[in-house]
Structures are given as C-alpha cells and as structure tokens.
Sequence to fold (430 residues):
Amino acid sequence: MTADATRNKQHTTPITQHLSRITHHASRLTSHVLLIWLAWAAILLGYQALLPARLTLQRPDRALFWTPNETAAKSQNDKPYLLDPFMNAQVSWDSEFYLAIATGGYDDPAVRAVPADGRQLSLSYAFLPFYPSMMKAVAAPLRLMGMRPIAAATLAGVLVSLLGTLAGMLALYDLTRGELEEDGGLRAAFYLVIFPTGFFLAQVYTEGLFVGLAFGSLALMKRRRLGWAGLLAVLATWTRLVGVGLAIPLALAWWREVRAKGLGLRSLPRWLLAEGLAPLAPLAALLAWRLSPWGRANELIEAKFFSRGFFLVAQTLEAWQQGLASTAGNSQAAVYYGLEIALIALALVACLVTLRRDPGLACFGLVVLAISFFSGVAQSVGRYVIVIPSLYLFLGRLGRHEAFDRAWTLASVLLMGLLATLFTFDMWVA
Fold:
C-alpha cells in the first residue's frame, strides 16, 4: 500500500466510523419509537376488547342535546356498518361512513340519505375520499382471504390508522429532536399517542392517517424536500380539509431557501423556482375537490345535515353559547365542554408559544384550530387538535421537568382511558 493510500485510509476511517455511529444511533432510536408504538397499539386495542367483558354503561349519553336519541340501546340498529361484531370496539359514529365508502362507494344504499339540491344524497358525501380509498386497497387482499366485506374494511381501517400513526411518530421525533434532543423527541412522540383524545389514532377514523401525512410533510420541509412535502400535503388535504393549512409552512420553507441563496427571483435555479409551486399544491387539492361533483355534494351535506362550513363565526359563537348553557344541572355536558375548552386552550397556547421559534409549525396549527373551531358547531374540537404538532413540541419542553412528565402522563392516560371507554360503548366523545 502506498503512503498516499495509507494517509487516505487513516483520514476516511474516522469519518466512516462517525457515519456508522450516526446510522446505528438513528436505527436504535427508530426501534424505540417502533416499540412504543407497538406497545401502545397492543395495550389500547386489548383494553377496548376487555371492556365489554367487565363493564356496561348506563344509557343514554346526555353530553349534547342530540346525543340521547343516538345513544339508546337500539340506536345502531339502522346502521349496518356499525353492527358487525369483528373489531366492533374500533368503530362508531363517523366510522360508519368510512366503512361504507370503502365497501360500497359514496352512494351505498345502506347509508342514510337526505334530500339536497333536488335529489337524495348519501350522508357519506360529508367525508373525504383518501382514507376510505386506502382502506379499500388494504381490504382487497383481506377479502380474497375470505374475510367478510365489513370485517375486512374494519381491519383495513385500523391498520391504515396505526401505520399512519407510526409515520406521524417518526416524523414528530424528527421535527422536535433538534430543540428537545433525542430523549425529548421520543417524549414528544409518546405524548402524541397518549394525548387524551389520542385513542382515535387507532380507530376507524382519519386522524391516524392524517398525522402521518401532515407530520411527514412538515418533516420533509425541514429536510428541504419541498416537492415530496407538497405531495404529502395534497394527500393530507384529501384526508381532512385542514390539510390546506400546510400551504403556509411550505411557503415559509421555500422562502427560507430563496433567502439562503442570496439571489433575486430571476436568478434562482430552475429547480428552486419549480419548488415554489409546492405551497400551491394543497390549495390546488382543495380547489379540485371543491369543484368536483363530490365536493359540491360534500358542501351540501355538511351544511344541511351536519350544520358545518368554513369560518361560520356567528353560527359557531351561538352554538357555543347554547352548549355552555346546557351544562347547568347536567354533569355530563359540563365534563364534555370542560374538556373541550381545556384542550382548545392548550392547543392555542402551544401554537402561540412556538410561533416565534417555529412559525411554520405554529401557523399550521393555528389554521387547523381556526378552521375546526369556527366550523359552525360546538363539538369535536378536542379530537381535531390531535393533529397540531405544536402541542407535542410545547408539552415536550415542559416534560423536561420530571414532575411535569409524570403528572401529564398520568392525567393524559387516565383521560384517554375514560374517553376510549365511552367510544367503545358508542357514547359521544368528540
């Protein structure tokens, strides 16, 4: 071996060893996230399976003015997609419509329809297509193996939610470890799955898939992969319309790239100019959905049956006034609205606190919170805030103090257990 080769080997060996240590460390941390996710999923699903064998709840639920009519002993009898015994603990409320779309399409006659725009429209049109499309794809091989259509769709929905949650945990760790370091990143990922309404991440609901897509998009922005981040933002928007809020962090990430180059817009390389289209991607996805026949039907059903829409400020404030008034003499309503307000306040504080250090992350959360809160009704915001990443960055900072970490973990797990119990028995949660 020549002297030059010897020197090159001596020079590269420390670099190779350093890269090897980094790769090994990243693999170890990824395995930690994976083990936390596996344990959480097994414990939560096992808990929901165990509940009916040991406990029954008194009906009906009186948390909201309309819940007594929907939570009586036979309230589910006209909803065949909620009656299949397979993994029935993981389906309730909106699950009916995701299962219907995945199994029989938007116009499945087994789903209730209401008159709108001179025709009968299925209530399924209130829900977006990407999550049930993923369910349908995953359910196809399960049906070939002999599973019943509804059972296959249910298992597929849970699998999609769980895998989306795993992707969200990994992305959240990547987003937060820079500030919180490695232990803090793991803590933030753990706080995601034990959040009081975090059990929805393992049900036939969209939240699990959405956090995987939205947090993945934000993590790719951090790594300057704006094209791929824009693609995930499109899919997130077709999962939940609040995904359109990803346009703001995409625009901020692109502008940071422009400023880092120190060039005028006319002097920018073509690849960077092309990435300037990424912030438009979720806006284009929203527009494409709104202009489609399904989007028009979606608006009609949301407004006519669910009383929802974009930024219905006056209607929302009136709904909250009525909701809070209903808590007088009604402990169930008082607990429900108390938790809703607490989670809304926590999300708002988290976004404001992180606004200066990470404006993209915070602005996305504020958009999610604003769209969710001013949708026209006084309910479900406690579930919608699960997808706000600033929550876990904020809580992760506080969790550096062992006393807070233990206290928040205990409080959050107990609340999640309460809410998961209610959901398992088809009571109203969010």
About this structure: The beta strands are 113-116, 119-122. The chain has 17 helices and two strands.
